[in-house]
Amino acid sequence: MTIRQLTVFVENKKGALVEITTALADNGIDMRAMSIADTKEFGILRLIVNDTDRAAEVLQNMGILVKVTDVLGVKISDRPGHLSQALRVLDDNGINVEYLYAFLLRTDKHAYTVLRVQDNDLACKCLEDAGYHIITDSDIAKLLK
Q1: Which CATH architecture has domain 3-68?
Q2: What angle separates helix 82-92 from helix 120-129, to the nearest 10 degrees?
Q3: In contact, 123 and 117? CB cutoff 8 Å
Q4: How many other C-beta atoms lie within 10 A of the C-beta of residue 73?
Q5: Band of pLDDT at residue 47, cut at 50, 70 and 90
Q6: 38: Cβ–Cβ under 8 A, 6 or more apart, which residues?
Q7: Pure H helices in 37-118
Q8: Tens digit of pLDDT for each residue in 71-125?
Q9: Per mean pLDDT, which range of 19-28, 55-64, 97-106, 122-131 is the poorest?
C-alpha cells in the first residue's frame, strides 16, 4: 500500500514557488503534505495532493520537471517517542529511510508521516505487523473532507 508523491524540480529564483502553488490552486489541486529542500540552483518540492495525475499534468504543461514516486504514509500516535518506535521497526528489519516529512494536518491523537524507503512492500508489512496503519489514497481523500 503506497501513496503517490510528486517530486517537482523548482528553479531557485524569485516567484518560482508562487507560480507552482498558484497553478495548482487554480486547477483545484489541494496539497496535503509538502517538503522542499534547496540547492544553489534548484529546489526539490515533494507534494502529496488530492489529484496526483492532474497536478503532474498541470506542472508538465508549464514546462516543469515532475516525477511521480510511490511512498508510504504512516499514521503514528502523536506522543513523544512514537515516531522513533516506528523508525525502529524499519531499522530492525534492515530498511533505510531515505527521507520523511509530515502531513499538513494532524489530529489530537495522530500525526501522519510520509516515508521514502527502498522496499515499500516490505516496509508496509513490517509496520503493519507492528500495529501501524499505512495510509492509502482513500485515507487521504477522507482527510480532505
Answers
A1: 2-Layer Sandwich (3.30)
A2: 120
A3: yes
A4: 24
A5: very high
A6: 12, 44
A7: 52-61, 82-92
A8: 998 888 878 899 999 999 999 999 999 999 887 665 556 667 777 778 888 988 8
A9: 97-106
Fold for the domain defined by 70-143: VC0802-like (3.30.2130)
Average pLDDT, the chain: 86
What CA–CA distance (Å, rounded) separates 106 from 116?
20
Question: Can you tell me the distance from the alpha carbon of 65 to that of 82, in angstroms, rounded to the nearest whole number?
Answer: 35
Grid cell locating 141: 481523500
Domain ranges of the chain: 3-68, 70-143
Same fold, 3-68 and 70-143: yes
Q: How many CB atoms lie within 10 A of CB 58?
A: 19
> 3: Cβ–Cβ under 8 A, 6 or more apart, which residues?
48, 70, 71, 72, 73, 114, 135, 136, 137, 140
**Judging by beta carbons within 10 Å of its beta carbon (0-12, 13-18, 19+), is residue 97 exposed, middle or buried?**
middle
Dihedrals phi, psi of 28, to nearest 5 degrees: 70, 20
